[in-house]
């Protein structure tokens, strides 16, 4: 393996976290991050634990709310309303997925846009599409940082985003457009997807299908950012792989993220960065959008 071609997401995330820690110390503030976990999904518990650890390392005060799986939607909305109104809480993270009886969209929309550190509220989504300064989803933001670290100026490059989810694909395309890329979004209804992908200077794979993209999809010298995290059984053992066939793509790409150790660490790092950004925005009262009225919950 040519280690010079493998993008080290752990090292890049460490640099982001160090800057956040430095800024918090220099500013003399302690942002507060509330993390809500409903249910006992094992993967979600691991994600929440890692997020809390990173918060503590950077000087962010974390508040954990672990709720049973049978928590009612009204109770969850009431908690969010209290956190919206709490000046000591600068960011609210609702760990997904939620139990089936809870309306995910309604609950996410209840989070005050200025405290929406995941960037999922419609006000932040709309602001991103308009090029305004808003809190943006952590995974696409982390991908952009990796691209800038690897390529510098992205202007004029052709980027292909594979996948059109609200969490990754759509905001990723919007951020690439802001960076003056030409952007193509491929999805399940796309025709000649591999042929279109072979035109790309930058490939962002976020489709959720293990090893779907191999060397035949890639233009020599392209940069590949693999967002996929898929658990498979391989020779009798469980392991994580991406949406890209790493071994096939490595000789073709000029740079590629591994799975694990690529995009994943950047997602948590940008959650901390968003929490600091939210705290700074809230220091100026006009910059914090009004929280949804609890009476409408």
Question: What do these coordinates show?
Answer:
This protein has 297 residues and is of the alpha/beta class. The protein is 39% helix and 16% strand. The strands form 3 sheets. It has a 5-stranded parallel sheet with strand order 5-4-6-7-10. β4 (158-162), α7 (169-178) and β5 form a beta-alpha-beta unit. The protein is globular and about 50 Å long. 43% of the residues are buried. NADP(+) binds at residues 163-165, 229. This is Bifunctional protein FolD. Catalyzes the oxidation of 5,10-methylenetetrahydrofolate to 5,10-methenyltetrahydrofolate and then the hydrolysis of 5,10-methenyltetrahydrofolate to 10-formyltetrahydrofolate. Its EC number is 1.5.1.5, 3.5.4.9.
What's the count of strands? Answer: 10
The proportion of strand residues reads: 15-25%
**What does the largest sheet look like?**
5 strands, parallel
Corresponding CATH superfamily of the largest domain = NAD(P)-binding Rossmann-like Domain
The average pLDDT value, as a whole number, equals: 94
**First-residue to last-residue Cα separation:** 53 Å
The largest beta-sheet arranges its strands as 5-4-6-7-10
């Amino acid at each position: 393996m040519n280690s010079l071609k493998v993008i080290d997401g752990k090292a890049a995330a460490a640099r982001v976290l160090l800057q956040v820690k430095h800024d918090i110390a220099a500013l003399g503030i302690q942002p507060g991050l509330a993390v809500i976990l409903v249910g006992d999904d094992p993967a979600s518990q691991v994600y929440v634990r890692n997020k809390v650890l990173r918060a503590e390392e950077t000087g962010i005060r974390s508040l954990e709310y672990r709720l049973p799986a049978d928590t009612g939607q009204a109770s969850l909305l009431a908690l969010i309303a209290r956190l919206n109104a709490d000046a000591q809480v600068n960011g609210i993270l609702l760990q997904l997925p939620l139990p089936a009886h809870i309306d995910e969209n309604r609950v996410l929309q209840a989070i005050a846009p200025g405290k929406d550190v995941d960037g999922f509220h419609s006000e932040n989504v709309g602001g991103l599409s308009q090029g305004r300064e808003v809190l943006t989803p952590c995974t696409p933001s982390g991908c952009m940082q990796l691209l800038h670290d690897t390529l510098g100026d992205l202007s004029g490059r052709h980027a292909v985003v594979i996948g059109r989810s609200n969490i990754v694909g759509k905001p990723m395309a919007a951020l690439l457009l802001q960076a003056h890329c030409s952007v193509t979004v491929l999805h399940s209804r796309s025709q000649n997807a591999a042929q279109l992908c072979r035109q790309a200077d930058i490939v962002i794979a976020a489709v959720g299908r293990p090893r779907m993209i191999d060397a035949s999809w890639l233009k020599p010298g392209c940069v590949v950012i693999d967002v996929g995290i898929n658990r498979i059984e391989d020779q009798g053992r469980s392991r994580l792989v991406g949406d890209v066939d790493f071994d096939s793509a490595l000789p073709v790409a000029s740079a590629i993220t591994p799975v694990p150790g690529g995009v994943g660490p950047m997602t948590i790092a940008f959650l901390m960065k968003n929490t600091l950004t939210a705290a700074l925005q809230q220091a100026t009262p006009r910059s914090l959008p009004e929280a949804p009225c609890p009476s409408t919950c």
